[in-house]
Design a protein that fits this description.
The complex is a heterodimer of chains A (about 260) and B (about 250).
Chain A (H helix, E strand, L loop, with lengths): L1 H31 L3 H18 L10 H33 L7 H16 L2 H12 L3 H27 L2 H8 L4 H39 L2 H11 L3 H29 L1
Chain B lengths: L3 E10 L2 E11 L4 E5 L6 H8 L7 E6 L2 E2 L5 H9 L1 E4 L11 H6 L8 H6 L4 H13 L15 H13 L5 E5 L7 H18 L2 E5 L3 H7 L2 E6 L2 E7 L5 H8 L3 H6 L1
Parallel strand pairs in B: 3-8, 3-9, 6-7, 7-8
Antiparallel strand pairs in B: 1-2, 1-4, 4-5, 9-10
Classes of the chains: A mainly alpha (about 260), B alpha/beta (about 250).
The structure holds adenosine-5'-triphosphate (ATP) and magnesium ion.
């Protein structure tokens, strides 16, 4: 009886929730005057335009070496930003994790840094840094770096939290020092998870680097922007294709690595 | 002189008294069981001894020194003299058995030596000897998460033994094990005391196990020491006192 009743009320809850969501959607569409019907109609036209214009021809392949150079530059920058950020986050994560924290001040500081860095999107960081550093590759690097520190610190803290207090206490009880416990018990247990987050962040950063590059005028993003503004749509298509391929290759590789380490 | 002397030990969390005026002594070579209902303060008592938990007041004299007054360096040194065995083994699951056993040597090493994992031939031989003794030497290079509970607990005991401790604290070492493994573990702990002369303090839930293995039993109830005597003295009257109810109730529960 009781179970039936709760199930019934649960059902009503769901229906109620659905109605609310629908209302909000309708209100939002009205407010921004988003014409749903019109946008649906424009899809075929847009598709046709893409097929007509984004057709990679033999001529475009002459740009290939240039594009590749920029692409490699972008990948290297993403990897560099990620690994250096990972190094910083490693210490911030240890300082902030409930398992390994030593004093509230350090923990609060590291959590603060993480949340500020993480809650501002990478694109916003790029724009902010653009003001002080100007259009150069350092700006792009820093934007990725800051966002990554935020994300990885948070992820590392959780990976370390997950290890728990058990082995930490056991080693402390043997008379081990704090750093012995961290490096011989906590980190060995958390490392695969942490490396997995680093790989994830490398993937993400290669994707973001394109966007950041458009803003800061560096790397593959700049190339993309340049071809786009000079109406060289075939080259734009080639750049896009190469970016997609790169991301897929990176993803496959990191999945492989993940399988081995986890 | 007694190996361990606890005087007027108090510990409270917020306003809740977990240990109230605990007094007892432990002689070298004793096998002491601590019994009591859940929440009586058994784990807290054990953890106060090696200062995983900081007591509020009182004295814990171990090896001639007041543990509660030690600075960081000397605390480390005394901790090396006290092994600890946990209910959930508290090993590093991803590391191998032999690595986990060698963790027991950190108390004798500088931070750097420990972090680099520098162990002498002697230490390694000793680790293998202990694994052999506890019948798990064939698993030495396996990851700990591949072992059964009973085997993991034996790794935990090896880790404690390689410390060359004078005292081993066991917090419900058999609470997660099946009856057979429980017996194996208890027999090993008993033989450690009898053959190596290492004093053991064991928290237990099962009164019968405490009675058949220990020389002496301590009973806690709501943080008070309500029994302290040789195991044969623990009759149904005292059991009722420790668990705060009739023995008849105890059996039907
Ligand atoms: N970190 C803590 N913060 C607050 N209260 C705690 C903490 N640790 C233990 N307590 C409280 O102290 C009391 C004694 O806990 P303790 O773990 O020592 O009991 P126990 O006898 O070991 O019980 P069990 O048989 O269930 O293991 C309990 O009431 C518990 O709630
Ligand atoms: Mg307990």
């Amino acid at each position: 009886m009781l179970a039936d009743q709760t199930r019934l009320s649960r059902k009503w809850q769901h229906i109620f929730l659905l109605i609310i969501v629908c209302c909000f959607t309708w209100i939002a569409i009205e407010m921004v005057q988003f014409d749903f019907y019109q946008s649906l109609l424009s899809i075929p036209t847009a598709g046709l335009w893409m097929i007509e214009n984004l057709w990679i021809t033999a001529e475009t392949w002459r740009e290939f070496p240039d594009i590749m150079l920029k692409l490699v530059e972008t990948i290297l920058m993403s990897v560099a930003a990620t690994t250096i950020a990972a190094f910083i986050s490693f210490f911030l994560g240890i300082a902030g994790s409930t398992t390994t924290r030593r004093n509230g001040l350090m923990a609060g500081l590291s959590r603060g840094i993480a949340s500020v860095a993480r809650n501002i999107p990478v694109v916003a960081w790029a724009l902010i840094l653009l003001l002080s550093f100007g259009q150069n590759s350092l700006t792009g690097f820093l934007a990725l770096f800051v966002g990554t520190v935020g994300f990885l610190t948070r992820a590392f803290m959780e990976s370390i939290d997950e290890v728990g207090l058990k082995s930490f206490e056991a080693l402390t009880a043997t008379g081990a020092t704090y750093f012995q416990v961290i490096f011989k018990a906590v980190i060995p247990q958390a490392l695969p998870q942490m490396l997995s987050w680093v790989l994830f962040m490398i993937e993400t950063n290669i994707r973001s680097a394109t966007l950041v590059g458009i803003l800061t005028g560096t790397g593959i993003g700049y190339t993309f922007d340049l071809y786009y503004k000079t109406l060289n749509y075939e080259a734009v298509a080639l750049v896009t294709l190469l970016i997609i391929l790169t991301v897929i290759v990176i993803e496959l590789t990191s999945n492989r690595i993940r399988k081995v380490i986890l | 002189m007694a190996l361990l002397e606890i005087k007027a030990l108090n510990k409270s969390y917020q306003s809740q008294h977990v240990l109230t005026n605990i007094d007892f002594t432990v002689e070298t070579g004793e096998f002491l069981s601590v019994i009591g209902p859940s929440g009586a303060g058994k784990s807290t008592l054990l953890r106060c001894i090696n200062r995983l938990v900081e007591a509020d007041s009182g004295e814990i004299i171990f090896n001639g020194e007041n543990i509660l007054k030690l600075g960081r360096k000397s605390l480390r040194k005394e901790r090396a003299n006290i092994g600890m065995v946990f209910q959930h083994y508290n090993l590093v699951p991803r590391l191998t058995v032999i690595e986990n056993v060698l963790h027991g040597r950190f108390g004798y090493k500088s931070t750097l030596q420990g972090m680099l994992g520098v162990f002498s031939e002697e230490e390694k031989e000793r680790a293998f000897y202990l694994l052999e003794k506890l019948g798990i030497v064939e698993h030495a290079y396996k990851r700990c998460d591949q072992l059964s509970g009973g085997q993991q607990q034996r790794v935990g005991i090896c880790r404690a033994l390689i410390q060359d401790p004078k005292l081993i604290l066991c917090d419900e070492p058999i609470a997660s094990l099946d009856p057979h493994s429980s017996k194996v573990i208890m027999d090993y702990l008993k033989s450690i005391t009898e053959e190596l002369g290492i004093t053991c303090i064991v928290n237990l839930h099962q009164v019968e196990v405490a009675q058949s293995y220990s020389n002496r039993i301590i009973g806690l109830n709501k943080g008070h020491l309500v029994f302290n005597g040789p195991n044969r003295q623990l009759d149904s009257h005292y059991i009722g006192e420790v668990y705060g109810m009739d023995t008849r109730e105890l059996i039907t529960v």
